[in-house]
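My hope is that you will study the protein record below before we discuss the fold together.
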Amino acid sequence: MNLVFTVEVPPFRRCISVLGVGLGERIMATTVLLHNGCIKQPQFFGRFVRGIRRHHAWLRRRLQKRGLKRVIRRIGHREKRRVEAVLHQISKEIVELADATSSWIAIGDLMGIRERTQKKGRRVRRIIGNLPFHKLTKMIIYKALLRGLPVVMVNEAYTSITCHVCGRRGMRSSQARFRCSACGEYNADLNGAINIARKVERHLGYMPLCGVAREPTLNYANA
């Protein structure tokens, strides 16, 4: 049974800072608060989502060898419920943080990531394909709108390989680490989240306090 209901969305609030949200493979969401150029409160969410996915993928392989199709469907439903419960908790905590700090929410836009990983091998394609980036983004957006918080989707191009300190291009020494030849090594997910937040902070002068983003590289989300 489906229930349809109408909720009145409050007007957008006056925001004084930016909460950058980077979505990743190992850590589902990394957030950082940017206020007057100062980096505050880095947090990491959803470390266990990939583990849930991998565990159920292993279960499916074993059950397929035994031809237990009904059991495979049942564990698929269980996996979906477990992942969605984690995503709801992550999105709730992110929006509560933005609410408490009166922040714009800037989310890295991963549109097209599946197409960009086509040449990276079957294992990488499977891992990326199973990660629920789109679902988490939608949860953050609707929870933010219910609190009158503006959400901006930010082009993620080069945010993970650009140093947030000096702006030079660096390299990912591993999935978890970013290295800049001038500034040293940082957590790669945190480096990306800072760059996402800064993209929005730089353009706040071009945005109305309670309206649609005007900068062409930013796409206001109202769904």
Summary: Residues 17-46+91-119+132-220 form a domain with the Nucleotidyltransferase; domain 5 fold (CATH 3.30.420.140). Confidence is low (pLDDT under 50) at residues 114-118, 206-223. The first helix runs from residue 49 to 65.
